[in-house]
User: What shape does this take?
Amino acid sequence: MNNAVGTAARNTASSSLALPIIGVLIAIAVTTTMDATGLSAFSAFALLPLMLLFWYVERLSRSEMGFKWGSPADFALALLYPVVVIGLIVIAATFAGAVDLSKTNWQKALLNLVIVTISTALVAIITEEGFFRGWLWGSLRRRRISEAQVLIYTSIAFLHQHRILCVAHFCRNIGH
Assistant: This one.
């Protein structure tokens, strides 16, 4: 009887949306506070310890967190998308006459491109994607929410967090 009560309590706890909601609210509060206090360049890093904490609390597997190898086609698509989008922007800017390469330091430009690409990809994957598409996604899926609903919920949480950060950044800049 005691064992059945324990199982029922675990099933109730794992079906509750309290932890995912609390996690998102904490993430929004922490990153917004950092942004509002002038630490916006580092606010995404706050998501890493939160992701690790909630991952530990829920005991999600690496696979549930999204840490698994994709197929070569998945990697190709992930690389092709930004190349196509940036390529279209470059073409549009060129036709608009907004491109002047006459004074470009190509060595420095290439180095900056490599540094920004690597650092942005690592920070985005480890922090924001790790929190919203890793822990939050796995947490909601564990609660048997459909993938379509999880996509909607995590997108809303991610966009809501960024909208609040933009408002906090805007308000901080108006005050100065």
In short: Confidence is low (pLDDT under 50) at residues 1-12.
